[in-house]
Design goal:
With 366 residues, the chain is an alpha/beta fold. It has a domain of 198 residues: FAD/NAD(P)-binding domain (3-Layer(bba) Sandwich), CATH 3.50.50.60. The strands form three sheets. The protein has an eight-stranded mixed sheet, with no helix packed on it. 44% of the residues are buried. Bound molecules: flavin-adenine dinucleotide. The site of flavin-adenine dinucleotide has 32 residues, from helix 1, strand 3 and helix 8.
Length: 366
């Protein structure tokens, strides 16, 4: 029932391109408006978890993803002071596979598939209002104007955390390592081509501005982690040009849909990056929206989309925020938590992954 409708998508990020492709596959005529002069992605790596991979497979990108992504074998929570692995959670049996990909590769595979499906992509076009179309999809990210048009301007709250991101040349096992230190943590994982992706988070009281692009001195990063174990400090010695940004929490939008508008991805539900779900949830949005519109048409499908998605993304966002607390413990609580994790890993190695079933096992395509 979405077939032959005219759809305008504002934003050519992961959420916008996935939604454009999903709707084009249902027969809609889709145009994506992107403010940038090229479809390209800032940042380096992304973890595509099985719930996101399921959508990419449904979009016909299974073989490209398996070529462009490294299959993850484990998540390894590690004591960032001693360098000792606390436990190891096996990912090797996840289906579809959990993968590490370069953001640019993911964007490229989505854009290429969109073009093959006849999606028109208009660059250098900043939308300041809703375009004329049967359906407008607001996929314009964390500072979405579409969300503002539907909900009014909402305040963002500084979370008291800043993050550096960087990539370095390094070979590594296909594992995501979470280095936990008091009031800080670092996530590292390999990317294709011998690169290692690093995001280092520190609790901090002072920060003014939100944004991804603040160049920082590597010395500041090293100073913040000067008590870290040797292995982590060695990795940090290779960082040349880190970017620093303040982590802000935006509330989930109250209104996601009108009779002809839908928000997807960060525009609807920005999340902190501590569960690696922002892009995966955007992929899920794309599949659920396209399926509901195809089954019920625009007017009846849009409210169903919001009703289906909101509880799930609220749960994922709460889980991401809780991770920050758990990673940053200090003193006796830290000792107890690490002991608990270590014991869990020994006596019930599948329990952790089992606890993630609600997230990784979700199938947005059926
Ligand atoms: C450090 C870090 C690590 C992360 N790691 C992961 C991870 O491992 N796994 C994961 O799933 N998620 C991860 N995320 C989250 C993920 O990157 C985002 O949730 C995801 O990119 C959101 O996609 P989006 O398409 O909704 O928005 P965006 O990627 O922000 O795309 C929005 C697009 O809209 C365009 N745009 C904005 N306004 C306009 C306008 N008015 N007119 C036209 N175009 C406009 C922008 O230029 C942009 O291209 C991470 C985030 C961070 C910060």
């Amino acid at each position: 029932m979405i077939a032959h409708s005219q759809v305008a998508v504002i934003g050519g990020g992961i959420g916008g391109l996935a939604t454009a492709l999903a709707l084009a596959m249902q027969g809609a005529s889709v145009c994506v408006y992107e403010q940038a002069s090229a479809i390209a992605e800032v940042g380096a790596g992304l973890q595509v978890t099985p719930n996101g991979a399921r959508v990419l497979n449904w979009l016909g990108l299974e073989s490209t993803l398996s070529v462009k992504g490294l299959q993850a074998e484990a998540v390894v929570p590690t004591d960032g002071l001693s360098g000792r692995a606390v436990t190891r959670f096996d990912l090797s049996r996840q289906l579809p596979a959990y993968r590490f990909v370069a953001r640019s590769a993911l964007i490229d595979m989505l854009a290429t598939a969109c073009i093959k499906r006849g999606v028109q992509i208009v660059l250098n076009h900043r939308a300041d209002d809703l375009p004329e179309a049967d359906l407008v999809v607001g996929a314009d990210g964390i500072r979405s104007i579409t969300r503002g048009l539907l909900n009014g301007a909402g305040p963002a709250r500084f979370t008291g955390q800043v993050a550096w991101r960087a990539t370095i040349s390094a070979t590594s096992l296909p594992e995501a390592r979470i280095w936990m230190l008091p009031r800080r943590h670092v996530v590292t994982y390999p990317l294709p081509g011998g690169r290692l992706n690093m995001v280092a988070v520190q609790e901090r009281d002072d920060w003014a501005e939100e944004g991804w692009h603040h160049p920082d001195e590597p010395a500041q990063l090293r100073e913040a982690f000067s008590d870290a174990c040797g292995a982590l400090q060695t990795l940090m010695m290779q960082v040349e040009a880190p970017r620093l940004w303040g982590l802000f929490q935006h509330p989930v939008a109250r209104v996601w849909v009108t009779d002809r508008v839908a928000l997807v991805g960060d525009a609807a539900h920005p999340t902190l990056p501590f569960l690696a779900q922002g892009a995966n949830l955007a992929l899920e949005d794309a599949a659920v929206l396209a399926r509901f519109l195809s089954l019920h048409g625009i007017a009846a499908g849009l409210p169903r989309y919001q009703a289906a998605r909101k509880p799930r993304v609220m749960r994922a966002i709460a889980a991401a925020s809780a991770n920050a607390v758990n990673y940053h413990l200090s003193g006796p609580r830290r000792t107890v938590a690490h002991l608990g994790l270590r014991t869990l890993g020994k006596v019930a190695p599948d329990a952790f992954i089992g606890r993630m079933d609600w997230l990784y096992g979700f199938d947005a395509t059926s």
